[in-house]
Amino acid sequence: MSISKKKISRRDFLKITATTGLALGLGSTLMRLVDRDQLVKVSETHLLMGMVVNISVLSKDIFSGREAIRKTIAEMTRLIALFDYRLESSPLSQLNRTGHITGAPGELIAIIHQSQELGHLTGGAFDISVKPLIDAYQRGVPDVSELVRLVDFHKIHINGDEISLFQPGMSVTLDGIAKGRVVDGGVRVLRSLGFENVLVEAGGDMMASSSEIDGETWEIGIRHPRNFDESSPLMTFSVVNKAVTTSGDYQNYFTPDYSSYHIIDPRLGKSPSELSSATVIAA
Questions:
Q1: Handedness of CA 94, 99, 105, 110 (dihedral sign)
Q2: pLDDT tens, 84-121?
Q3: Which of 27, 69, 84, 184 would you label with 140, given CA atoms 20 to 30 Å apart?
Q4: Range of lowest pLDDT (29-38, 50-59, 231-240, 266-275)
């Protein structure tokens, strides 16, 4: 933890460079005093179930900022517990083990519905039932052609609060969508507490929220997919009240040449080779 009393402008204070996909130092709190409005920037980095989460807020005092971040982390942790298949107690983990659950949480049902809509919109390129392929690649299985038949989001059925996988051996991962939902949930908590100037980032998914009074911007740096020098981003740009998400082959790869990694084209059963990194900016 460090405290700096250097006098800088509020605009300088709100401009940060967050290199997407880069894990920052854990457990640190950075607080700096903003001279003009006596606002304090409170930033914390947490490790939530294997995911690095960075939160920055502009607060009237340090205590209020820390308390707001505490409540934000609590909400993000609650959401992760619903969406993370790695947690044995999560409803998604139960669905993958048994192929059927009843009394599913409404938030889980909603995100699966949204995932299926995205599956239709992308012609099957986005498919949350791709988990068997990813698991096989992680184990080093060279030929996954027999597993492709298990990938079909149409075979995930929802009836009220019941979710069923209609083919034995199917399993679901929400890694391609849930981080964004967790980030949005964190931002909603901060806004409900009256914090307008905030940034929440989780493993490459981030939301930058700013006060409309001064038109402040957050400056974002995109990590180069082959040059991992934090001081040399691929590009930088500014956003105001926008979400930014980057995913690349370098973030979780299965082969040293990046030809096989955590992004799988479910229609082909292998990783796409057209791009090394992709960034999306949205509301």
A1: positive
A2: 999 999 999 999 999 999 999 999 999 999 999 999 99
A3: 84
A4: 29-38
C-beta of residue 176 within 8 angstroms of C-beta of residue 126 = yes
Q: How far is 223 from 233, CA to CA, in rounded Å?
A: 5
Tokens of 96: 């993958």
CA distance 91 to 134: 20
Q: Two tokens at 75?
A: 């909400």
In a domain, 116, yes or no: no
Q: Residue 51: which domain range?
A: 2-83+197-248
Please name the helix (run of DSSP H) or strand (run of DSSP E) that holds residue 24, with its range, or none.
none
Distance CA 129, CA 208 (A): 30
Sequence-distant (6+) residues with CB within 8 A of 239 are 208, 217, 218, 220, 281
Give the pairing of strands 162-165 and 100-101. Answer: antiparallel
Nearest one of 206, 254, 204, 256 to 226, comparing CA atoms? 256
CB 76 within 8 A of CB 186: yes
CA–CA dist 110, 26 (Å, integer): 32
In a domain, 160, yes or no: no
201: nearest Cα among 78, 108, 73, 112 = 73
pTM: 0.82
Q: Give the Cα separation of 66 and 193 in Å (integer).
A: 12
How many of the other CB atoms lie within 10 Å of CB of 211?
A: 16
| Encoded tokens for 124 | 């099957």
Does 36 map to a domain? yes
- The answer to whether residue 15 is domain-embedded is yes
Based on the structure, what is the number of domains in the chain?
Answer: 1
Distance between CA 119 and CA 159 in Å, rounded? 19
Query: What is the three-class DSSP state of 241?
Result: coil
State the greatest distance between any 2 C-alpha atoms of the chain, in Å, as a whole number: 63
